[in-house]
Design goal:
Number of strands: 17
Bound molecules: magnesium ion
Strand order of the largest sheet: 6-7-8-9-10-11-12-13
Number of helices: 13
Mean pLDDT: 94
Structural class: alpha/beta
């Protein structure tokens, strides 16, 4: 038995700009910073609780406090921690992801190995990431196109009654490839198809979650008729049948805060490939801590959407790098490779 000291504290960070999606707006994030300490080594993790899944900063803090005095049979076995957390309480996947991330960071530091090497990733450079725009009036969207200057791929949040105006305003300024995220905002097959037809031919390479997660039959119809690849986000938390999702979507957006673990995400990546689903690794609005852990998973993915930390005004650490062409890259330091900013 090995005792690991686990502590947590609120991680409240202002955003550079108010961020709006079809479900609401926010000016700051209320996440949780987690530390695992043993043998003079400290692993760091972050939980980004999501209201859609009935998680809050407080509920995540509560969950983690239950592990204050955690004793592991084998501290190098993340599967043991994942199983213990599942037995401890249902839900709270952001807290679970933050804890597992901190343990992985601790293991990497303890073994003096970067996690991409420990996990035998194909390399330390992943796909290009998008740069996300929240919903705004077309005029403000124009300002954001200028801010997104260095990033070659844009992600635009839609699901308003002026979606076409937003896209037209952006297309007046740039022909960069666009990933559209409707966040369940289109409510019928007809309205979704109308938008998809409008977007076809406008260099939109992917549409994320066009319709509400419960619209499974509707999504099957949409998938058969959409000329643009459709990716699941709200429709996948990690517990669904991937075979069934493959009838509704061309790909899935895997997020650590929903699967609850790096190890679980990697299992899903390999299973999803078997049923022909493409893979994107996404993030919540989170700092460079969680985005670096997500970038680790992205080393096995086709697409990345890891700009959460770019929306935060000041990151507590430096982790992943975004290369000039937009690719995400991990550094060569032990664990997650996080360093003081
Ligand atoms: Mg999304």
């Amino acid at each position: 038995m090995k005792k690991l000291s686990i502590t947590r504290e609120p991680l409240d960070l202002p955003l550079k700009r108010t961020f709006t999606i079809s479900r609401g707006s926010r000016d700051s994030i209320q996440n949780v910073l987690i530390r695992i300490e043993a043998d003079g080594v400290t692993g760091i993790g972050e939980a980004a609780p999501n209201h859609r899944y009935e998680e809050t900063q407080e509920s995540a803090m509560d969950f983690i406090s239950g592990f204050g005095d955690y004793r592991a049979d084998n501290p190098f076995d993340v599967g043991e921690l994942v199983a213990t957390m599942e037995r401890y309480a249902p839900g709270e996947y952001a807290a679970k992801a933050g804890l597992e991330m901190a343990l992985f960071d601790w293991i990497g530091k303890k073994l003096n190995l970067p996690l991409y090497k420990l996990l035998q990733a194909p390399g330390r450079t992943g796909p290009r990431t998008t740069f996300t725009f929240g919903i705004d009036e077309p005029e403000i969207m124009k300002e954001k196109v200028a801010e997104a200057g260095p990033y070659p791929y844009l992600k635009i949040k839609l699901g308003t009654n002026y979606d076409k105006d937003i896209i037209s305003a952006i297309r007046e300024l740039t022909d960069k490839p666009i990933l559209v995220d409707a966040n369940e905002g289109w409510k019928t097959v007809d309205s979704a198809l109308d938008m998809i037809r409008f977007l076809d031919g406008q260099n939109v390479y992917m549409i994320e979650q066009p319709m509400p997660a419960e619209c499974k039959k509707e999504m099957q119809k949409l998938r058969l008729n959409s000329p643009i690849p459709l990716f699941a986000d709200e429709s996948i938390t990690g517990k669904e049948s991937l075979q069934e999702l493959a009838t509704q979507f061309h790909g899935i957006n895997i997020k650590l805060m929903k699967t609850g673990a790096i190890s679980t995400s990697l299992k899903i990546v390999h299973q999803a490939r078997k049923v022909g689903l493409q893979i994107m690794t996404g993030c919540m609005v989170e700092s460079a801590i969680a985005d670096t852990a997500s970038a680790l998973v992205a080393l096995w993915a086709d697409f990345a959407d890891l700009d959460g930390h770019l929306l935060v005004a000041e990151n507590p650490v430096k982790g992943l790098t975004i290369l000039p062409e937009g690719h995400v890259q991990l550094n060569d330091k032990p664990g997650l490779g996080l360093t003081e900013e």
